[in-house]
Amino acid sequence: MKKTIACLILALILIVALEPHTRAWIAGSVYGLIAQQEEPAQETDTSSFSRQLGASARTDLLDVTLYFRFADTGVLGAQRVQLDIRREETVATSIVQRLIDGPDIAHENLSGVFPQGTELISVSGDGATAFVTLSRGFLGRPDGAPVDWEDLAQWQEEAALRRRLAVQSIVLALTEDARYQRVQLYLADSDDEIPQRIAMAWMDTSVTDPALVLAACPRDESAMLTPACALDMIMDAWQRQDWAALYRLMADTQDDPLPMLGEFEAEMAQRSVSLLEYSMTNGTVSFDGRTATLVLDAAIRSREGGDAQIVRESVSLVRAQDNWAMCADTLDSLMIRD
Question: What pTM was computed for the model?
Answer without folding.
Answer: 0.81
